[in-house]
Every structure is written in C-alpha cells, then in structure tokens.
Structure prediction request, 388 residues.
Amino acid sequence: MSYGKDNQGDLLAPLAAYGISPITGFVPPIDPLETLSSEFQSWEAVARDLPSLIRSRRLRAEVTKLSILDPLKLESDRARERALLLLTVLGNAWVWGDREPNLVIPKMIAQPLCKIANALDRPPIVHYASMALNNWRRLDINEPVSSDNAQLQIRFTGGVDEDWFFIASIGVELEGAPLTSLARTATIGSHYLEDSDLAAVVCEVASSMDPILCAVRRMREWCDPYIYYHRVRPYFAGWPVPGIIYEGVFEAPQLYVGGSAAQSSLIQAIDALLGINHGSTTAGAYLRAMRRYMPIAHRRFVEDVELKSMLRSRVANGNAYLREAYNEAVQKLTDFRHVHMGLAHDYIARPSKLIEQEKGTGGTTFIDFLHDTRHSTISAAVAQSPGC
Ligand code: HEM
Prediction:
C-alpha cells in the first residue's frame, strides 16, 4: 500500500541519515570489520584469545604488555567501530576477568579507549551497540544476515550460550527492521493522513511486532539461564560504585552502566511513535539516560520520532479504526514486555536466588523497573469510543 506524499522530509530525514537500513534496521547493513590493520594487531591478538586468557587468568598480564596506540589513525567508520569493540571488551575483561575486580583500567587500554569512545560519542564500556550490533559475521556470505546466519566475532568466555545471547538479540533487531520504516511513515503520516489511512499504517506497525515477539522467545533455544547467569553476564556488567579509574585519562572514578538491550533503539523508537509516556519516574529517566549509549544517529532518530509523532493526540480524537489499530499496537508492545519480563525472571531472578537485591547488567532493580515500563505501556491504551 502506498501512503501518498512521503516527501515530508522536513518532518523526519530519510532513514539513511539516521544510520538505519530498511533491510537490517539498526543493525549495520554492511558486515562489521573482522580485523584492523597490521598496526593494531596486538589488540586483535588479545581479543581473539580472550576465552583462554580469562580461563588461565593470564589476561591482565597480556594487557600490560600492550603499547599505547592511537585509534584516531583509523579513518573508516567500520574500523573505528572495530576499535571501540576491541577496546571496550578489553576494558571489561580487565575489570572482571580474574578472581577479584581490578578498579583501575591501565593506560594502554584506558587512553585509546576513551579517545575512540569520545570520538564516537559513546561510553568507554561494553554496551549494546558495540557488543551486539557491531560484533557479528555471516556464516554464509551468500545469504543475508539473520540470527540463523551469524556468529559472534569477539567473545569473553565463548560457547554457544554467549554466542546466542547476542545473536538472538540481533535477531530481534533484524525482525524489527520493517518497524523503522513504519515508524517514520506513521510519524510523518500523523501530521496529514486521514484517520483511516493512518489506521492502516498503525495496523502494519501492530502486525510487524509479531516477528519480534517470536525472535525474543527464541532466546531460550540456545542460551541456558544458568550459563548466562554465571558465565556470560558477569563480563558485561557495569562499574561498581563509585566507579572505575581510567589511568592517564580520568583521575576520579567514572561510573557507567553495563551492556543491556535497554540500550536498543528499536523498542524506544516504538515507544516514541506511540507516545508511551514513561514519564519522570525512575524508569523514564533511566530509559532516557540509555540513549547516551546508542550510536548518535540512532539516538537522533528516537528523539526526532518522539518530538514529531502526533499519533497519540490524533488517536485521542480519532475514529474507531484508528483507536482500534492504536490499541492493537499498544497490546503487542505490552506482550513484548510481558515475554521479556519472563526472560529477566528466568535468567536473572531465578538463578540469583536473591530476587529483591539483584540488579540487571544495566544497573536497574529490574523487577520494579520492568513492571513500570510494562505498566506505562498498558496505561497508554485508549477507550474504544470517545467519551466511553
Ligand atoms: C535472556 C535475555 C534477556 C535478559 C535476561 C534481559 C534482562 C533485562 C534487564 C534486567 C533489563 C533491565 C535493565 C538492566 O538493568 O539491564 C532489561 C531491559 C530491557 N531489555 Fe532485556 N533482557 C534480555 C533480552 C532482551 C532482548 C533480546 C531484547 C530486545 C532487543 C531486550 C530488550 C530490552 C529493553 C527494550 C529493555 C528496556 C526496558 C523496556 O523497554 O521495557 N532484552 N532487560
């Protein structure tokens, strides 16, 4: 179906300007680089051997042998992403990769890490965009990327559970790719489409949520909760209070949260389109803070959709079709959050046996946080007829 005048570029830029592909969504459409040039092979070598270096507790000794290199000599976007991936992983492995955490990242990692993170306006810690979005290779280069045609490049301890934890997340992003175009169309359409045409776009938004629901359920296929809890998540945890010192860069401890799909732009873009108000609560503030962990172009997309979408106010005064379509989309997002809460329960709360005290890798007291985000989603549904 064509929705007519999609030339309202003044409302939202084309997807490409936000670093989004209509085919792969927030996942880069060109495969991430697999190695840096010869000058940077010392980083590659440590990152490649990470599982054995962590197991044998030799990681820190190897890191201290590194010399300080300048990542800004790398010119292409893909090379800079690769450098950020390697250095964030080395930083997290340094802190968490032995019996006791080491709270001072040495200058041979800290200096290039902070330099490249600053250049890309991203955090100097493992985060979703580095570890998931930019950390895969295709198994069959003649087939498109999918969760069944990708493997993780850089791993902390290795194994199918770690591989699948991140690849399944990429699967959710890939299934969500059509939603990026639809979010743009619906945001623009919310300014000029008739109710019935706008309802048709919103219906498509709702039905396009089904594949992401299937994809998130697939997490259970190859990622075992016990292995995830004990072997996978400890390495991408955030920094403990009061933070970590980056030697030769910051004298005072710096505090960052760990890698979490709460840093995914996909669900935040859908929230933004639907006008889901997580408000000024702790949950709302946290989700806004997570935008600092997104690639800058993706962050702009979420912010622009949030600013420009009139959908919710159109729905408030819209016809029955529009209200029904909107409620359907809200229901699908609620279903996603419900299924996701089941994962958080089975993969963290249950193996931790602490339930109340346990935090997510993103640092939230996640049971309350995830209840709050689901509650604000449910509350967004509108009465079927005005005045009901
Ligand atoms: C075993 C798999 C997973 C577990 C255990 C898990 C756990 C969590 C936890 C604990 C949080 C709270 C933030 C934090 O402290 O980290 C969170 C947030 C979030 N996660 Fe996951 N997650 C999983 C998979 C996924 C996947 C595959 C996606 C989709 C890409 C996803 C999307 C989100 C989103 C969007 C949030 C923000 C909260 C919201 O918008 O409702 N998660 N997750």
Remarks:
- The mean pLDDT is 95.
- The first helix runs from residue 41 to 48.
- The first strand starts at residue 104 and ends at 105.
- The two ends are 32 Å apart (CA to CA).
